[in-house]
Amino acid sequence: MDGHQLGEILHDCLACGSPQELLNTARRAVRSPLILADLTLHVLAITEEEGISDPRWLQISAQRMIPLDVLNLNYFQRSNQEHQPVRSVDATGLTILRAAVEDRGKLIGYLMSPCYGGEPEEGEIDVLRILADLCCLRMEKQLSYVEYPDNLLHFFLADLMQGVMTDEEQIQDQCRRLHWNQKMPYQLLSIRPVKEAERRSFLLLRRRAEELQTRFPEATVFQYGDRVKMLVHIYNQTARDELMQSELTEELAQLGLVAGVSQAAYRLVSMARRNTQAEKALELGEQLHSRETLLFYKKYSIYHCLEICAKELNLLQCCHPAVTLLERYDRENGTELLETLHAYLISNQGAAKAAADLHIHRNTLTKRLEKIYDLCVIDLEDSETVFHLQYSYHILEYYGSTFLNNSYESWIRRSPTLRHP
CA 148, CA 210: separation in Å to the nearest integer? Predict the structure, then answer.
């Protein structure tokens, strides 16, 4: 492309009214796709492409969201400092150009060009640099973006959560330079708005992070993509930790937020794994229709295991034969034996509590249990049998929340005791 043609394209870019129109026009000057995302990692504009089979590109196009491992904040920090696009080569050998969309040194967006069209030429890199400046103008005008705080601690924490920093000595050196001391042990919370419509609002997330930091000054709170992250010290004192938990639950509920909570960590190098746990608790809590504000990974780890196993086998084949038999019998006879056995198990075989949970008379419960024993010949005094049965009910709930999808709620209405708390 000669200079005259390039000049015409850039002139056309100046007249573009939206980020999408801007990227579509600039695409004529480069050989590879273009993606523009905001600070919550949601895609604001992406060029339409044909013939790209890379699963990452297909995922970004479909979900309108850039995964953090693809984004790689380190390169955007470099781009912001050098005021130039940064070139890198990923593990698959693909070259990716990244340009920080910044306003007076403050990052406000991410511009990327995965080079499926071949290695970028100098002219294309110049186009990306100019395009980043034009994107800044469009984002400020149309999306009312405010300045993003340049916080080195938050960038450091982002590196820890991505698993970029793994050398403990370097981590401690960085903590000293930043004058930051996280008390051990700690839990990591991954927080998002309950309402779907609020999850893409950068300004709302930022405001919520500030409110949580004010409310809990001893915690470390920061915005990370489309989440608010929170590091909370655990005192290992039951009363004190329960009070903190209660205060967190109340505050999050008032702000319309829900949080996935990791297991305890004793080293900062464990933060990447704890972030995965918190994210997985959030994801599974939503899948299982949980109504809790704090979703603890320790409650969802069994479902995480089931999720992994489901990729290799049909989970239903792992159920205790009694569960399969009772499900079929209920379906054919209109009875409720499957739910009755579950209620009896989760009440630690307490007949009075099980009957109350099922809203039936205790005599009715006794008759149902007798029928279950006649059909299944199970020994509830055997701990292995009880464990296998309880495990089977976990499988049923996970199966209902994932494979049955839309029918999950109707299924739960028939067997409410199967709902995860």
Answer: 13
Please give the model's pTM, rounded to 2 decimal places: 0.66
Q: Which residues pair with 110 in a beta bridge?
A: 37, 100
Residue corresponding to tokens 């299944």:
376
Cβ atoms of 355 and 361 within 8 Å: the answer is yes
* E strands, 194-276, in order: 220-224, 227-233, 257-261
Residue type, 395: I
CA pair distance 121, 34, nearest whole angstrom: 15
Q: What are the angstrom distances between the C-alpha of 304 and each of 116, 244, 293, 329, 408?
A: 35, 26, 19, 30, 18
CA–CA separation, 92 and 324 (whole Å): 45
User: What token pair was written down for 190?
Assistant: 């991954």
In angstroms, how far is CA 345 from the centroid of its own chain?
32
pLDDT in tens, the chain (421 residues): 566 677 788 788 888 878 899 999 999 999 999 999 988 788 999 999 988 999 999 999 988 888 878 888 889 989 998 989 999 999 899 999 999 998 877 788 899 999 999 999 988 999 999 999 888 887 765 544 443 434 678 878 888 988 878 899 989 998 998 889 999 999 999 999 999 888 877 778 888 999 999 999 999 999 887 899 999 999 988 898 999 999 999 999 999 999 999 999 999 999 999 999 999 999 999 888 888 999 999 999 999 999 999 988 999 899 999 999 998 998 899 999 999 999 999 999 999 999 998 999 999 999 999 999 999 989 999 999 999 999 999 998 888 777 765 455 555 565 666 655 5
Nearest to 349 by CA among 384, 381, 395: 381
Closest CA to 154 of 222, 225, 231, 77: 222
Q: Are strands 294-296 and 257-261 parallel, antiparallel or unpaired?
A: parallel
**Long-range Cβ contacts of 317-324 (<8 Å, 24+ apart):** 318/391, 318/392, 318/395, 319/392, 319/395, 319/396, 320/378, 320/385, 320/388, 320/389, 320/391, 320/392, 321/376, 322/372, 322/375, 322/376, 322/378, 322/389, 323/389, 323/392, 323/393, 323/396
